[in-house]
């Protein structure tokens, strides 16, 4: 029987959950390991919040809103992103070639890429101001998972590890383990109920909607109450979920139909304002675009 240890971190105004999985004999060891790694993840998330919060006058995002974009350049190159297989837009250099490098510069490049991939429906400008928060949380969770949790799986310290917060989760399982993650999709009309259970081993689930934060996304259509997207990387799952809410169901389906990578990998679950649910799976030609 699998032993699961979990800890909660409060950052970015939401709770984040760290989970480690092992066999029953590893329970005590997992407790020690998770107590060591959780503060490291917390420090990292607080660091990202300090840099990117639009609500803090001292953040780099607030500085950019005042016209100060110096955070795009760093005097000392830092470690480039560890995110594997990042899908760059045409002519967009990879992180390894963008030096000097800062997290702020990486997010700026990602939101520009997202705007291009989504035909402008993922827009880093909100109400006339720079606001990359639609991608920051998913990116931060993925980065923290890669930096702090994947090494535990690689070293055999645990069989599986996940980090999630605010409807977004990045999860992974060791090749030698038969463990599977079961991730519930929350009902936007009832926070104590789920509408779907997603099973995966390695991948990410992102959910975007208006039930908790209201109308925080610039929208060209209002025919979705919630969008959940499953992808390999949370950065992109988060981007596509935000795009679905922004663009609306039919436009989103059209964008996916025109993007071979997205069409082959994305699984989406939509909740319409009337409570009806629809979805399409990887490789499936989205409805009305056959």
What does this structure look like?
The chain has about 290 residues and is α+β, with helices and mostly antiparallel strands. It has a single domain, classed as T-fold (Roll), CATH 3.10.520.10. It is about 35% helix and about 25% strand. It is built from 7 helices and 12 strands. The strands form 3 sheets. An 8-stranded antiparallel β-sheet has the order 1-2-5-6-9-10-11-12. It has a two-stranded antiparallel sheet with strand order 3-4. A hairpin with a 2-residue loop joins strand 7 and strand 8. The radius of gyration is 19 Å and the shape is globular. The chain starts with a strand and ends in a 10-residue tail after the last strand. About 10% of the residues have low confidence. Pfam families: ApbE. This is FAD:protein FMN transferase. Its EC number is 2.7.1.180. It catalyses: L-threonyl-[protein] + FAD = FMN-L-threonyl-[protein] + AMP + H(+). Keywords: FAD, Flavoprotein, Lipoprotein, Magnesium, Metal-binding, Transferase.
């Amino acid at each position: 029987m699998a032993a699961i240890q979990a800890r909660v971190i409060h950052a970015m105004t939401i709770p984040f959950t760290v989970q480690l999985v092992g066999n029953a004999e590893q329970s005590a060891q997992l407790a020690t390991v998770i107590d060591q790694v959780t503060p490291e993840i917390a420090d990292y998330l607080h660091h990202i919040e300090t840099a990117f919060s639009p609500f803090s006058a001292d953040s780099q995002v607030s500085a950019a809103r005042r016209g100060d974009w110096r955070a795009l350049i760093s005097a000392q190159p830092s470690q480039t992103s560890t995110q594997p297989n990042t899908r760059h837009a045409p002519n967009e250099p990879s992180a390894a070639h963008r030096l000097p490098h800062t997290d702020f510069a990486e997010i700026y490049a990602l939101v520009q890429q997202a705007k291009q991939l989504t035909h402008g429906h993922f827009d880093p400008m909100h109400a006339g101001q720079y606001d990359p928060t639609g991608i920051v949380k998913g990116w931060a969770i993925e980065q923290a998972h890669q930096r702090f949790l994947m090494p535990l799986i690689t070293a055999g310290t645990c069989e599986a590890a996940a980090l999630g917060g605010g409807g977004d989760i990045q999860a992974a399982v060791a090749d030698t383990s038969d463990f599977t993650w079961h991730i519930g999709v929350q009902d936007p009309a009832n926070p104590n109920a789920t509408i779907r259970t997603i099973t995966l081993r390695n991948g990410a689930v992102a959910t975007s909607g208006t039930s908790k934060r209201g109308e925080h996304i610039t929208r060209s259509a209002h025919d979705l109450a919630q969008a959940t997207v499953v992808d390999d990387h949370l950065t992109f799952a988060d981007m596509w979920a935000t795009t679905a809410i922004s663009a609306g169901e039919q436009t989103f389906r059209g964008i996916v139909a025109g993007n071979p990578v997205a069409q082959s990998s994305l699984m989406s679950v939509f909740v319409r304002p009337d409570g009806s649910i629809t979805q399409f799976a990887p490789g499936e030609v989205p409805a009305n675009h056959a």
